[in-house]
Design a protein that fits this description.
With 266 residues, the chain is of the alpha/beta class. The chain has a single domain, classed as Alpha-Beta Complex (2-enoyl-CoA Hydratase, Chain A, domain 1), CATH 3.90.226.10. The chain has 12 helices and 9 strands. The protein has a 6-stranded mixed β-sheet with strand order 1-2-3-4-6-9, with helices on both faces. A 3-stranded mixed β-sheet has the order 5-7-8. Helix 1 links the parallel strand 2 and strand 3. Helix 1 packs parallel to helix 3, helix 3 runs antiparallel to helix 10 and helix 5 packs across helix 6. The termini are far apart.
Length: 266
């Protein structure tokens, strides 16, 4: 199957690798990528042959978050359009999160905003030790709403409050402490580390693995996907604010948004 923004490869062991393939855009997510990620997750979830899914990315960056052009287009839509787009992102994350196969994240370079959402729906994350992370939405007058239920669920409230609203960058070591990243390694060792995780899973009975994952999710409490309507509404509300309109406009105009000027003058 051919996709525009991602690649799918299934090897002889029935290990599927889904690769974000917008390297020129730092793999920022637009409507097409969100749709294709949903479609491929549904495909892998229902294919009984697939044993493991690896989520990876081309280029220098794992995922820079939401494509700013896509965000600006959402800000210009009516209320129903805003809710539809926010809901599509929530549905994609929920589909990956609920996949009945183990999902291993191969992370490198940087992961911002929605990139953290993708990491949060992986079961095991292996990252280049030099990877940088940030939830940068508030710099644009936005909030990490749609990814919020998944990120907060995996980080826990204490760790989330340290990074959720100040847009400060943080390291892989911080996410190791929070438990979101399982292990780090040098960039050149990433593939070998991913292979170790894949091989360990392939030694286990596939039905037992699937049921154990499902039990783990149930024992952990409410499904973050259940907060989809709440988070979509919160994002639609925020897109309609003057702050968000000014922040996105300032980004494209390469200007400083009003709140940064006011802060500097204060």
């Amino acid at each position: 199957m051919t996709y525009e923004t991602i690649h799918l490869h299934v090897d002889a062991r029935n290990v599927a690798t889904v690769t974000l393939a917008r390297p020129d855009k730092h793999n920022a997510m637009n409507a097409t990528m969100i749709s294709e990620l949903t479609e491929v997750a549904e495909l892998l979830a229902t294919d009984p042959a697939i044993r493991v899914a690896v989520l990876a990315a081309e280029g220098k960056t794992f995922c820079a978050g939401g494509d700013l052009g896509w965000m600006r287009a959402q800000a210009e839509k009516d209320r129903a359009g805003k809710l539809a787009e926010a809901t599509s992102l929530a549905r994609m994350l929920g589909t990956w999160n609920a996949m009945p196969k183990p999902v291993i994240g191969r992370v490198h370079g940087a992961a911002y905003g929605g990139g953290l959402g993708l990491i949060a729906v992986c079961d095991i994350v292996v990252a280049d030790e030099a990877t940088q992370f940030a939830l940068t939405e508030t710099r644009l007058g936005l909030i990490p709403a749609t990814i919020g239920p998944f990120v907060v669920k995996r980080l826990g409230e204490a760790f989330a409050r340290q990074v959720f609203f100040n847009a400060k960058p943080f390291s892989a070591a911080f996410l190791i402490q929070a438990g979101l990243i399982a292990r780090t390694c040098r960039h050149g060792d990433l593939d070998a580390a991913i292979e170790e995780e894949v091989v360990a899973i392939l030694q286990c009975a596939p039905g037992a693995v699937s049921e154990a994952k499902a039990l783990c999710r149930k024992l952990a409490g409410p499904d973050p996907a259940d907060a989809g309507e709440l988070s979509a509404t919160a994002l639609a509300d925020r897109w309609e604010t003057q702050e968000a309109q000014d922040g996105i406009a300032a980004f494209f105009a390469k200007e400083t948004p009003s709140w940064r000027r006011e802060s500097a003058n204060g």
